[in-house]
Amino acid sequence: SEAGMEDSTIAYYEQAADRQTDSTAAYAYYKKLTDISKKLKNYSLEAKYSGRFYTGNDQATNLDLFNWGLAHFRAEEYIQADTVFGSYIAKYPEQAFGYYWRARANSMHDSTMEAGTAIPHYHNLIAVLEKDTSNATNKKWLIEAYGYVAAYETNKEKDFPEAITYLQKILAIDPANKDAQRYISVLEKNVGSKQPTPGGK
């Protein structure tokens, strides 16, 4: 079977990589192993070999580091993805990718928002993205980030005015956003019902 052949190829390359005394040759095998794993959609294995290819390899690029993190994310290894994207942020702090995927990894790991672990990463992402709201990807990611923070403020903190602030930020860059409009009107009713009545009655 093809899968059986791929398995024996992986085993062969892995042994070959381990035998190399020259690190450049070893990295070439780890690159092949990364590509085979990706083709097999074995993202956990892809992450393992991506890490081996990237670590200590001065020929590796920011894209190799990014793909390593993404492989962990696709393998649903969110803690490891968080670590790799943390490294990406440390090396490339002006790029949005690390912040976005670190926020995503934390939002998946903390899927009920119970711990709020994605919140600081979404705030960091917002700070980077707000420098250029004309960029289409930035705009899309900002809407997602504002929406996530608004949902957290609504459901976990019960801070409806703060949630409304973030939803209004969505409308500032996407005035026709139906979800934001709808949630604002719902939240404003909630805020309104909690206001003291005039005259204290």
* Global shape: elongated
Please state roughly what percent of the residues sit in beta strands, choosing from under 5%, 5-15%, 15-25%, 25-35%, 35-45% or over 45%.
Answer: under 5%
Query: What class do helices, strands and sheet pairing give?
Result: mainly alpha
SSE series: HHHHHHHHHH
Radius of gyration: 22 Å
List low-pLDDT spans. Answer: none
Number of strands: 0
Average of the residue pLDDT scores: 93
- What percent of residues adopt helix (DSSP H or I)? over 70%
Spatial gap, N to C terminus? 79 Å
Number of helices: 10
Largest sheet, in brief, is: none
Could you list some keywords that capture this structure?
mainly alpha, 201 residues, single chain
Task: Summarize it.
The chain is mainly α and 201 residues long. It has helices spanning 2-19, 23-39, 43-54, 62-74, 78-91, 97-109, 119-129, 136-155, 160-173, 178-194. It is elongated.
How would you characterize this protein structure?
- With 201 residues, this protein is mostly helical.
- Helix content is 74%, strand content 0%.
- It contains ten helices and no strands.
- It has helices spanning 2-19, 23-39, 43-54, 62-74, 78-91, 97-109, 119-129, 136-155, 160-173, 178-194.
- Helix 2 (23-39) runs antiparallel to helix 3, helix 4 (62-74) packs antiparallel against helix 5 and helix 9 runs antiparallel to helix 10.
- The radius of gyration is 22 Å and the shape is elongated.
- The chain starts with a helix and ends in a 7-residue tail after the last helix.
- The model has no long low-confidence stretch (mean pLDDT 93).
